[in-house]
Amino acid sequence: MPESISPSLVKSPKIAIIGNPNVGKSTIFNQLTGLSQKIGNYPGVTVDKKTGSMNYQGSNYEIIDLPGTYSLYPNSEDEIIAHRVLNQLKEEERPEFVLMVIDSCQLSRGLFLATQLIDLGLNLAIVLNMADIATRKNIAIKTFEIFKALGVPILSTDARGEKGLDQIRELIHQQNFSKKSSFINIEEVVSATLLSEVKEKFKLSNSYQAYQLLRFGEKDKTFSLDDRNWIKAKLSESQLQLDAAQLEETKIRYRKITSIVEKAVVKTPDAKQESGIDKILLHPVFGYLIFGAILLLIFQAIFAWATVPMDLIDGFFASLAGWTSNLLPEGPLSSLITEGIIPGIGGVVIFIPQIAMLFGFLAILEDTGYMSRVVFLMDRWMRPFGLHGKSIVPLVSGVACAIPGVMAARNIGNWKEKIITIMVTPLMSCSARLPVYIILIGLVVPNEVVFGIFNLQAVALLGLYLLGVVGVLFTALLLKNILKTEEKSFLMVELPTYRAPRWLDVLWTMYNKSKTFVFEAGKVILAISVILWVLASYGPPDRMDAIRAESEVKLAQASPDEIPVIENETASLLLENSFIGIMGRAIEPAIRPLGYDWKIGIALITSFAAREVFVSTIATIYSIGADTEDELTIRQKLNQQINPETGEKVYNTATAFSLMVFYAFAMQCMSTLAVVYRETKGWKWPLIQTVYMTALAYFSALLVYQILS
Amino acid sequence: MFITADSIPVSRAAIIQEILDSPLKINLMELGFLPGKTITLQHSAPLGGPMAFRLEETILALRKTEASLIEVQLL
């Protein structure tokens, strides 16, 4: 049978969904694609590529969710994607159909983008979403008038209420999209001869696409240098003023749209203006208090809830390692798997509860429309430090974990503000620092109440968090004065109507962000864990062998009670003489002025993997045994450590505070580094960050120790 | 008399006369700040922070510097 081509060989048609921000685009995408979503990468940028497939009546369609944008002229990395996908030169790589989602209450703004798409010669259909809200606001839209003016199919839907979704599926299935010649005549703005030269050179048929190519081709690295030079030459030859042309285009376009909207929209006046909630939430005093309270609530929830799954994950990987080591024959392979790879994967997975929950809360704040209000409230306070109102999201996330924070920095459009945000976010005191702080504070700060209400230990802990904030502001100021950019910083955000969050979308965000983290950052973390394992397990063979031989002799003579003690001593001796132990001794002269001995030096090196490793390393070095759960035992043990030279306690007040300050500032988290690498697309920023933070930590700790001792 | 949008008093409405020339002119126009449209100042963040204007059915927040690019006439 000729028609029986196997389904996998038939390419499914590609449909791109596009629209302004906050129009319910993602809801439509989620409803259409359900569980089939995939997150990929666009080459060269960090914007996630969201695709999914839709099955309808036996046919399969590939759906692409493009980032929200107001026009084809991009202002941020997100918007470049929409521009690039739709402007693709090769016909076969462009999506076959484009579904343009418009907020029914924001018709003219939506039509602005829609008509640009028409001019690009795309196969288009328009969805007028949020029909319910328009009705509530007494806005009636005569869709036929719009259809008459544009000539592309139009649907009216309410995606949140799942109304009209079947019509969308049907529309896609019927391939009921249509291509119009053009909406405005771009030759009113740019000379026709120039456009036909471009069309000829790049084999294009559409004048508007030729114009877009002239506008952006010169800086588009996907073009060859020859092509870019050609465009540059053409531009200067024709003396085309790009900005003026764009302005002219915008005016012409809006003039035409306004006349359509006047015919199509019937607005009954006295529409309810709901700004009552904002009177409180944006209040100059209460607005900030409420924001603070919400933050407190979120952190409370994260600290209270995330610990349960984190402990479970920790336990699971510990028993998995134990089970594997019993299963495998003893040897380097077994130990690589049980001491390197499994804890390495565990070290990635353990962050999932926090990342998922934090992104869940952020998604709720975003989806209800509150997040733009926070940007509005905070922008004034961020700006003096070279940050943007939008930087508040990464910084706030940073208190739980820098990883989602750095990931959240990507929707800051301005390059300089984005880099500063990424650079300072890891200075916020994240939850991984907490175990270190708690142990050391417990050691040197008395558990006393002063002035009737303040618990000294709590004050010390608060002080460390504030120190993180001070580090952030200081570093941001520093970078603000160093980094140069010609980009102008601006803030233009919509404060959307408040709405209940869409729980399904929240869950999707949680799932997708965690997945991205595990697969992207996970690779790097795993590699570094294995390196650290090698350094901690191997040493000069003669020394290691001698220790093992001696231990066996002792074990042979020992009583059953003594065996664990001897085993711990051996483990500690082996670590001391491993490469990492040798490195610890090597850096001792450098860390001596901070009040640390070589044992702390080892912990500093191993904590490069993750800060909380400090506790388990210290536990191993002082041979407390594998059980690090009981922090009291470690504390008692640390308290007993005596410096053989001075006869004083190793962990005196000066050393403990110096260590805490060091941990507050040092870059000791390879997961964060991996994410910074991913977000900045190179090793330059993660390296600068590591060097800077380590230097800041070193000198601050030095200062603290020298003052206190 | 024309003023710029950053000096509209809270809750007052004004008609946009012109968007002054600047690299941000197009961004403002894309958002719908067009001559002839009415804007109302809804909220103003403290200490010269951003200002939130109602423009038709949306509320848009701008910094003072951006608002000063919008020339308006008070209603």
TrEMBL record, chain A:
Binding locations of GTP: 19-26, 44-48, 65-68, 129-132
InterPro entries for the chain: Fe2_transport_prot-B (IPR003373), Fe2_transport_prot_B_C (IPR011640), FeoB_GTPase (IPR050860), G_FEOB_dom (IPR030389), Gate_dom (IPR011642), GTP-bd (IPR006073), P-loop_NTPase (IPR027417)
Localization per Swiss-Prot or TrEMBL: Cell inner membrane; Cell membrane
One Pfam family hit: FeoB_N
UniProt xrefs under NCBIfam families: feoB (TIGR00437)
Function comment: Probable transporter of a GTP-driven Fe(2+) uptake system.
Protein name: Ferrous iron transport protein B
From TrEMBL, chain B:
The Ferrous iron transporter FeoA-like domain, residue ranges: 3-74
Keyword Phosphoprotein: no
Any one Gene Ontology molecular-function term assigned to this protein's record: transition metal ion binding
Protein name: Ferrous iron transport protein A
SUPFAM superfamilies linked: C-terminal domain of transcriptional repressors
Keywords from the named record: Iron
InterPro entries the record matches: Fe-transptr_FeoA-like (IPR007167), FeoA (IPR052713), FeoA_core_dom (IPR038157), Transcriptional_repressor_C (IPR008988)
